[in-house]
Amino acid sequence: MKKVRKAVIPVAGLGTRFLPATKAMPKEMLTVVDRPVVQYAVDEALEAGIEHIVFVTGRNKHVIEDYFDVQPELLDTLTRSGKTDQLQSLNRLQPQPGTISFTRQQAPHGLGHAVWCARDIVGDEPFALLLPDMVSYGERGCLSGVMDLYRETGGNVIAVEQCDPMDTGSYGIVGKGDSTGSGFVITGMVEKPAPEAAPSNYYINGRYVLQPDIFDVLSNQRRGAGNEIQLTDAMVRLSDIQKFYASPFEGRMFDCGSKDGFIQANVAFALIRDDIRDMVLDPIEQLIASRRRHIQAA
Ligand code: G1P
Predict the structure, then answer these.
(1) Which of 52, 113, 152, 274 could form a disulfide with 109 if both were Cys (CB 3.0 to 4.6 A apart)?
(2) CA 103 to CA 36: how far, in whole Å?
(3) By residue range, what is the domain housing residue 296?
(4) CB-based pocket (< 6 A), ligand 1
(5) pLDDT tens digits, residue range 79-133?
(6) 221: which DSSP letter?
(7) What is the domain count for the chain?
């Protein structure tokens, strides 16, 4: 079994659900507490043992590249003013030279096409895929569980969570087969099915380990839901010849591409930070209580 060394992180999406904030700034640079959303995906990948990150970017996303580069003036200023804590934390987050690559998706043809754009950099080896809008919250990052199951089963592994059965139209949905280790065999996959057509309520939550054969399938994949080249459709075709397994995530994902998910993520991550929790817990509780009283009185 080949080791999973590389992770693809697509960051080419337009972020229309977050306008006007994303008019001049990539949605991946919105901050959850004090770190950009994309940093959470990188941290999760590194925690899971990934050695090289491949970003698939698009126009107006150059600030993401700058963010992961060294900023010598900033480091000088922090050094001269003795701000060692900030200096150390920036140094800790700094990717090692040569461990990060960028390629561009030149037009918004969908997630499947974005992944296909990474084919030359990934090469002939299995790779992880993290959709950075989905921010993992739990004891361990979601990708670590996916990698554990991959080491048991090989093949292709997708992280899943259960959604409200009425919400299947927002996600890729998998069918549940026999249990295997910490997961189960996937019996089918459908992109954004209506509730009555969904094979289960297990939704694809944005973390995958895929075999490189997916690139060949994607190279002639027809457009699907939303007139886009869908990764899920290509995975369905690959599943004719390769096994797919689901790794149920024990934590939860916040969809930071949506306003409600983004706000919930900010509250959740603030409340687990020792340096912030005590400053925000009481004020948040008071705000909620006061809002509840206001709604009841209305
Ligand atoms: C994509 C995938 C979908 C998955 C979702 C998770 O959809 O196509 O299968 O469930 O991400 O966020 P998108 O959100 O890009 O429409």
Answers:
(1) 113
(2) 20
(3) 259-298
(4) 111, 131, 134, 171-172, 191, 203-206, 230-232
(5) 999 999 888 888 888 888 899 999 999 999 999 999 999 999 999 999 999 999 9
(6) P
(7) 2
